[in-house]
């Protein structure tokens, strides 16, 4: 398993290779990352379905639910990359909510878009109570303080960029601050950190979600390692996924 320094070198290499020739591929990589991030959550739409949905959206026609949610993820990822990552001054909770709002505006529950949760949520188990849940996030009264701490971590440039992105992503997923859309928002945050640190300047987004989706069980296991205080194991797993994502982009 390779480490964060190897991942950082790979990201720099990706963004310094034939930039003028390959610039049109930047949007393709962004869409690939968005589609893969949605697929991890069970939302499937291939490139043709997505193109048709975009046309229907532009003409005011009804867009199929799954394709609409994937389009929302493309929009949310675009906001994360183009707006939130380049914001003047510190990254704030408002920027985070703006990403989520764009992401969830086309979902079946647009009323929760951009809204920090005020109820307890959990992962796994059943819809009625957390019995049997695989993970129970912090109570809602602690979420605002935890998100402020997270934003402090996003604005802190003392960490190496890949380590920072790995920890920010895992901590966001641990807080789980929204009723829905946490996975997709958290994976967008990876690119916010990398772009703000200048390691993925505006050419190519490494499709890390593609790699996470190829071995979803290992991805979930890595987040569990983080919560079990095995931070080094999670960072190494994240770094390996990042290197694999660069290879996919280069190919």
What descriptive keywords fit this protein?
2 strands; mainly alpha; 251 residues; two-stranded antiparallel ribbon; Fic-like fold
As a whole number of angstroms, the C-alpha radius of gyration is 17 Å
- The CATH level-2 architecture is identified as Orthogonal Bundle
Low-confidence parts: none
In CATH, what is the homologous superfamily? Fido-like domain
Shape designation: globular
- Count of strand segments: 2
The end-to-end span amounts to 21 Å
Q: Could you estimate the helical fraction of the residues in percent? A: 55-70%
Provide the structure class: mainly alpha
Class in CATH? Answer: Mainly Alpha
Order of helices and strands: HHHHHHEEHHHHHH
Query: Total helix count?
Result: 12
Write the layout of secondary structure elements.
Elements: H1 4-14, H2 19-22, H3 25-40, H4 47-59, H5 65-82, H6 93-104, E1 123-124, E2 133-135, H7 143-154, H8 161-175, H9 182-196, H10 208-214, H11 216-227, H12 231-250
Antiparallel strand pairs: 1-2
Helix pairs in contact: 1-12, 3-5, 3-9, 3-10, 4-5, 5-6, 5-9, 6-9, 7-8, 8-9, 8-12, 10-12, 11-12
What do these coordinates show?
The structure is a single chain. The relative contact order is 0.17. The chain has a two-stranded antiparallel ribbon with strand order 1-2. The protein has one domain: Fido-like domain (Fic-like fold, Orthogonal Bundle). The longest helix is centred in the last third of the chain and has 20 residues, at 231-250. By secondary structure, the chain is mainly alpha-helical. It is globular and about 50 Å long. The mean pLDDT is 87. 62% of the residues lie in helices and 2% in strands.
